[in-house]
Hints:
The protein has 227 residues and is an alpha/beta fold. The chain has seven helices and six strands, in the order H-H-E-H-E-H-E-H-H-E-E-E-H. The longest helix has 16 residues.
Amino acid sequence: MTLTADAFTDEELADLSRSFEGASAAEIIEWAARSFGDGLAVAASMEDSVLISVASAVHPGIDVAFVDTGFHFPETHATAERVRRRYPIELRVVSAEPEGAPPRDELWKQSTDACCARNKVAPFDTALRGYTAWMSGLRRADSAERAEAPIVTRDARGLISIRPLATWDDATVEAYVADHDVILNPLLFDGYPSIGCAPCTQRVAPGDDPRSGRWAGSAKTECGLNL
Length: 227
């Protein structure tokens, strides 16, 4: 019998999160799959497929949600297709606009927050309807804002948010990628260590904060999906 999100109190989730500090990503995913079954999904940005690789090995056929914002780099779409072909997953591509709709406006020029809310967060919220829990590849090493991120928590939707890779540092990621021939977005090798939508993502100089190319020149650091 699978569990619902209200099966856990916030205090119980905090205790679980602390108990997973020394667990492997596979062990965390095993717990999540056992607890939530088909009510569990993976959120993917198609920057890399590390989490998808681990999750699909533990729970073949798992649903993976990828938001087509309408502004992705062509390389990101190509990575999504490679991922779909390689791994035993059910890839769900979700979008803010119905098929055949007119091109999206350039809302990002007026407000990046409003653009993210409309083209990324809203369709993702829709994609998560019917799920109890979701996993992301968020890592504490990504940025200062993520340094204290819990492994398990309840998000603003009331769903269980799980970060199996939260404790992984860059060396751990690189080792896993090498050992498992993980699919990577080619833009990672072209000066984009963190990849978002094309209009709001710039190349980063060697040695600079990897996420400094996201919404460069503004105080914005997150799209709103994770924090």
